[in-house]
Specification:
Blueprint (H helix, E strand, L loop, with lengths): L4 E3 L3 H25 L11 H23 L1 H12 L3 H16 L13 H26 L4 H30 L5 H9 L1 E3 H7 L1 H8 L7
Antiparallel strand pairs: 1-2
Helix pairs in contact: 1-2, 2-3, 3-5, 5-6, 8-9
Length: 215
Amino acid sequence: MTINKVEKYRKPIRILHWTHAFSFVILFLTGLVLFIPALGFLAEDGWTRFAHRIVAVIFVVAPVIYSILDPSALVRGLKQAFSWDKDDLSWVKAAPRYYFTGNEKGMPPQGAMNTGQKAWWLIVIIFGVMFAITGMMMWKGTASASISQWLVLIHDISLIVTGTMFLLHIYLVIFHPKMKGSWDAMASGKISVEYAKAHHGKWYNEITKGKGKGS
């Protein structure tokens, strides 16, 4: 029997991904109401502020619970985000040609996360922490006026960076013809063997030799 799909993401990580994604969308939209003065009327009666705070708790608590339940996954994820090598540099050089023209020439084999995914994951970690710290301090409301201004600035910069990258992420996953397998990965947890070889060659070789597994 021919195996044409391999497991990329286990169910727990998919649940965390979708929980975090939906909470981020709500935080992004309710945050825009405060970020763009013209949308201020939507914040009347404070319902957007209330929703923002409630969902912010979910955004912070969800990965904490996941990390407690599966600390090895936390260690593995952090290692992937902060481990970069020459293949990542080669990927960065070859990526524009690949994403704009579909030419795969020069694309180096990648691990469980390709370079683009690692960059996005690193941004999520760094700015997620910044969101949490500045958000909690602003919620507490005990900081001085000058410190509060810095908190708002850092929070807004985090919004701009993560919001931009999130929109790029959505485009690649849903619309880019070369990335259709990404949706399957988070929807069912599995990807085709062809997609695995093309986008995660190193990882595919590891799992076929029994040295690796899905996230």
